[in-house]
Amino acid sequence: MRTFSAIFIFCLYLTVFATELFSQASDGNTEWLEWKHQTSGLVYATPVISDGTLYIGSTDSIFYAIEASSGKVKWRYHSENTIQSSAALHKKLIFFESGNHLVALNLKGKLKWERDLCEGEVRNQIDPWDYHHSSPYIHDGTIYIGTQNGILLSFDAMSGEQVLRCQTISEQVIRTTPVVSGGLVIYGDWDGVLYANDKSTGALAWKYDTKLDGSYPWPNSILTQLVVADESVYFAGKSNRLYSLDIRTGKKNWHYSSPTDQWLIGGPVVKKGVVYLGSSDQKLFHAIDAFSGKVIWIAELDCRIWGSAAINEERIYIGSNSLYVIDKDSGSILKQHEFPQVHEAKKYGEYTDRTANFHSSPVLYDGMIILGSDDGCVYAIKEL
C-alpha cells in the first residue's frame, strides 16, 4: 500500500467547509455522552439492536447483551476465542462467529447450539489490517457465513443442521458477510473473486475475478460488506476499486478506481442512487453515483475509514479517528467529535501505518449514535 502523498490532486473534488470541532473525550467533558461500556478487548463488531437490547462482541471473547437506553449489561456469554464478527438475530435466537465456531444463543444468553465451521488453527488475523470476520447473514430461516478455508456454509437457524457447502477455487479466507438476493448467495474471498451460488443447490451461477482489472503486490481481498440495490451488487476492498455488477449475470456495470492505488475498505452503503464509502490512507469518504460510477463529492477525514456509514435523511455518521457528521448532499463536514488516539503508528519498512480508532460501524438508535471502539468501549453518543 503506497503512502498517500497526493491529496492535492483531489482539490477540485474536496468540499472545504468550516468544521465545528467538539470537545475531546480526554478533556473530562462528558456532555456528549449518553453512556459507555468498557470491555477488556477491542470492539470491531457493529452493534445490533432489537427490542431495546444491544448485542455485540469484543476481542475479549465475551458477547454482551446491553440495555440500549442505559448501557447496563443484561448478560455476558464467554466464548472460547475473539469475536470479530457482528451478530444476527432470527426469532428468539442471536448468532455470531468466534474462533471458527458459529454460536447460537437464546435471548437470555444461554447456548442453543454451536457448530464447527472448519478444522485447523484459528486465523484471526491474516495480516495487520485484517479486522472483520464474516458475519452470519439470515435469509428465510437459513444462516449463511464464510469460513477461513474458503468455504461458504449455510445452516438451519433453529436446528443448526448444515444445509449448504460451497468451496471457492482459491480455498482462501472469506471475510465478507454473504448476502442473498434473486435466489443467489453472493460472497467474496481473500483472492479477490466474487462468487454467486444458487442458494438452494449451491451450484455456481457466476463469478467475477477482480484481478482481471489489475493486481498489486498485495492480495485483491474483498473485505467490505456487500450491498444489493437496483439489481446490482456493490463491493470494494484491496483491489483499490469499487464495483457494481449485474446481480443476474455477474457482468460489470462499472468500477471506480482509487486514483492513488489506495484500498477502498469502508463498507459501501447505497441510498437513493448514491454509494457512500471510505478509503484507507487517502482518508477520503466518497459519494458516488450508483448508476454511473461518477464521483459526486469527496470529504477528507482524519484517518482511514473502515466501517460503514449510518445515514438518515440529511446526515451521514461515520467513524475514523473521530466521529464525523457529514452533510449528505454536499459532503461538507458539519461536526467532528475527537477521541484520543488509541494506536501508536507502526513502521513496515518505509511505510508508516496509522490505525484508526474505529473499525466498528455506527448505528442510530433513539437519538443516539452507538458504535464500538478500539479502546474497548461501546459508546452511545447524543446525536450530533
Fold and architecture overview:
This protein is an all-beta fold and 384 residues long. It has a domain of 90 residues: Lipocalin (Beta Barrel). The protein contains no helices and 35 strands. The strands form nine sheets. Strands 1-30-29-28-27 form a five-stranded mixed sheet, with no helix packed on it. It has a four-stranded antiparallel sheet with strand order 2-35-34-33, with no helix packed on it. It is globular and about 55 Å long. The N terminus is likely disordered.
How many beta-strand segments? 35
Query: Taking strands numbered 1, 2, ... along the chain, how are they ordered across the largest sheet?
Result: 1-30-29-28-27
What is the helix content? Answer: under 10%
Structural class: mainly beta
Q: What is the helix tally?
A: 0
Largest pleated sheet: 5 strands, mixed
In the CATH hierarchy, the architecture of the domain at 133-222 is Beta Barrel
Task: Extract low-pLDDT stretches.
Answer: 1-27
Q: What is the distance, rounded to the nearest whole angstrom, between the alpha carbons of the first and last residues?
A: 34 Å
Estimated radius of gyration? 20 Å
> What is CATH's topology name of the domain at 133-222?
Lipocalin
